[in-house]
Amino acid sequence: MSEEGGRRNYNEMTDWTDDSNKGPLTAKSDGTNSVYSLFVQDEMILMNERLTLYLGGRLDYWEITDLMDWTTVGNAGANEYEDRDETYFSPKGSVKYRASNSTTLRVSLAKAFTAPRLHDILGGYSKDANSMRLSSPYLEPEKATCWEAGIDQTIFDKTLFRATYFENYLRDYKYTESWVEDGINYSTAMTGGKSRIRGFELGIRHQLTSFLSAYANMTYQDTEVTEDEQNPEIEGKHMTNVPREIYNFGLLLEDYAGFKGSITGRYASKAYANSSNLDTTSHVYGSYDAYFTMDAKVGYEIIEGLMVSFSVDSLPYTFKKLITI
């Protein structure tokens, strides 16, 4: 994957599609961000198919090239940055043990690598005239070490319960730093320090009929910034953009006279947007409030291999718009 792009800031622009009405150029940036990955995995079945081992790994090569920015604001002027690259290997291993026909135990351990996005590196975009996203040319890739353990329990061949406990340990994790200066809301992406996420997942799926099933699950996440030399005052705070609770539920129509479909719902609790966790007020500009959405989809297989489908996202909002119109 490779992304190439840039940004341009002008003093005035009443119509962005018309070059003739643009004011003086005040800032610009360009760069190329590339990630190349190779993934391999092997499955081994042992002990009369009771024990299954998965061993794998992913090799990532990341590079950022031709990165520059220029601005007339202050004394920053033009800057050209050295090309950077990094190679990282992420191993993964997991074990599944079928203790009985209805009970399966599982455990896994893995490492992960996430390269920064060009969108965050270049910055420059703004939500309105009083906000500005600054560039972050020195963003580092995020790394994580993760493990989880869980159990799957089937009852009467129709109901499946799942329970999982997990822990994720991150370093150079990405977060957003925000502040206000001279009436302007500034923000920038940052990486650095360490954090951890602990939590659990609970889920249930029940086969109502031969073609209709229902499911529900929830995730609880307890996050903490454990170390940050650049910003030590945020140590002990919750991570940004990570809700503490997430709930999902839905009905799945698997195959009935050629029809397939689903109705799904999702709820996520309030998340912090500020690394110091100061944004505790809801329903105000800039807050990441709790939200609930519902989606629906239905499809019909006209002939084998050819299906038409219709879907609606955010049902309550869509119906509200229709009623308003």
Automatic annotation (TrEMBL):
<comment type="similarity">
    <text>Belongs to the TonB-dependent receptor family.</text>
</comment>
<feature type="compositionally biased region" description="Basic and acidic residues">
    <location>
        <begin position="1"/>
        <end position="10"/>
    </location>
</feature>
<keyword id="KW-0798">TonB box</keyword>
<feature type="domain" description="TonB-dependent receptor-like beta-barrel">
    <location>
        <begin position="15"/>
        <end position="313"/>
    </location>
</feature>
<dbReference type="GO" id="GO:0044718">
    <property type="term" value="P:siderophore transmembrane transport"/>
</dbReference>
<keyword id="KW-0732">Signal</keyword>
<keyword id="KW-0675">Receptor</keyword>
<dbReference type="InterPro" id="IPR000531">
    <property type="entry name" value="Beta-barrel_TonB"/>
</dbReference>
<keyword id="KW-0813">Transport</keyword>
<dbReference type="InterPro" id="IPR036942">
    <property type="entry name" value="Beta-barrel_TonB_sf"/>
</dbReference>
<feature type="region of interest" description="Disordered">
    <location>
        <begin position="1"/>
        <end position="28"/>
    </location>
</feature>
<keyword id="KW-1134">Transmembrane beta strand</keyword>
<protein>
    <recommendedName>
        <fullName>TonB-dependent receptor-like beta-barrel domain-containing protein</fullName>
    </recommendedName>
</protein>
<dbReference type="Pfam" id="PF00593">
    <property type="entry name" value="TonB_dep_Rec_b-barrel"/>
</dbReference>
<keyword id="KW-0998">Cell outer membrane</keyword>
<keyword id="KW-0812">Transmembrane</keyword>
<keyword id="KW-0472">Membrane</keyword>
<dbReference type="GO" id="GO:0009279">
    <property type="term" value="C:cell outer membrane"/>
</dbReference>
<dbReference type="InterPro" id="IPR039426">
    <property type="entry name" value="TonB-dep_rcpt-like"/>
</dbReference>
<dbReference type="GO" id="GO:0015344">
    <property type="term" value="F:siderophore uptake transmembrane transporter activity"/>
</dbReference>
